Amino acid sequence: MAATDTIIFADGMSDIAVANGVARITLAQSGSEGKSVPVGQLCVPVTQLPAIANGLIQMLRQLEAKAKELKATQEPVTAEAPAPSGSFRFGSHT
Asked: Which segments carry the region annotation Disordered (predicted)?
């Protein structure tokens, strides 16, 4: 993975606007008392939105498949057998 200058954690979106051929998606986090707090903005050319949306959809499909696979093979969690790690990596969607 290439190094990034900025990493933004977001668990939602607070606004989406389109102007001059650019979609501006305001990313947000759940703040205190459950209120949404803006943390950054993702700006994407409208012409690239389908590619990004399709990439996210493919990632979600892979996530669902992986979750089903883990659920089917997972034994009950006991003190002797801790739960498996929830981390895994998806293929590139470029």
From this structure: 72-94
